[in-house]
Amino acid sequence: MESITTTSYAVHFNDKAFFELKKYLTLNSYSKVFVLVDENTKVHCLPVFEELMADALSFELITIQAGEENKNIEACNKVWLALSEMDADRKSLMINLGGGVVTDLGGFVASTYKRGIDFINIPTTLLSMVDASVGGKTGVDLGSLKNQIGVINQPKMVLVASMFLNTLEDRQMHSGFAEMLKHGLIKDASYWKELKAMDSFEDIDDHILTSVSIKNEVVLQDPTEQHLRKILNFGHTLGHAVESYFLENNEKETLLHGEAIAIGMVLEGYLSHQLTGLSLSELEDIKSTFLSRYPKVAFTDEDIKTILSMLKFDKKNSHGNINFVLLKTIGEPVIDVKIPNDLYTAAFAYYKD
């Protein structure tokens, strides 16, 4: 698979990935290398990484707790302290080996430690491969509010090795697949149809490449999310609010990111039908596709009220306005759409119907 070049780094795939990492380490004289993992990747992915990099890399290991609930400033503080205690200087390198929590948090820690050290991301989940691999977004949650603290800073390279997907349960694969379906909805109707037809994840490599290419094409045109890059947030305005609500509510089962975003895309698909011209047949296509792959979640009126109250924290908001990305048709998004208040409850009613 050919590497993908971004504005400042390359995404390398499978066997080429670790060849390029070894070459990079040979050409760059780092004082120390640190590998950040969580409890899961320490068990399932670190041994594979160590075998692939045998005799090519000496490193110090830092481990954080797994799970979105640990993607916070307290975890950052522990990693900063670990770096300091192990004498990390400004010529150190951090390699983030894990899913989105590890790459987001690790990238933020590296970007801020001693005003910034180099980092490399090795995403190990489908979600992080097709989402966090491109764009340079780093950061952590503020309480249950998603990604409120962070910076945009680019890694030195990203390595996507699909062998790590063998460590994932089916639910995690479906979570990442929701972001891939989103890429079709916002950019390529034929890709949407292609993904819908998949009944297994056996031949996912080429689709990973397509998704990374789609996101890279968008980010190259708008690296700091002033205009076009906002389209990547389709399904995320309501989806993030749903995810945050289930994350902070101990009585609810926590939703994975893709599961929440799948709900968000159905809800925002309904808003698109009402406001930006998405046809009823396309809306029904979106709804049936997501409900066939992701279990329907029950929402009480109180749940919906609390979820809607969280919309004011969305990062795309400006001047007190909640800005949505909606669809004119599948493959053609519209940004910065304002929503009449009465449509929110109607969208949830459509999802629950």
Automatic annotation (TrEMBL):
Residues 62-174 form the 3-dehydroquinate synthase N-terminal domain. Its cofactor is Co(2+); NAD(+); Zn(2+). Its EC number is 4.2.3.4. It is an enzyme of class 4 (lyase). Residues 176-317 form the 3-dehydroquinate synthase C-terminal domain. Keywords: Cobalt, Lyase, Metal-binding, NAD, Nucleotide-binding, Zinc. One of its GO terms (biological process) is chorismate biosynthetic process. One of its GO terms (molecular function) is nucleotide binding. InterPro entries: Dehydroquinate_synthase, DHQ_synth_AroB, DHQ_synth_fam, DHQS/DOIS_N, DHQS_C. This is 3-dehydroquinate synthase.
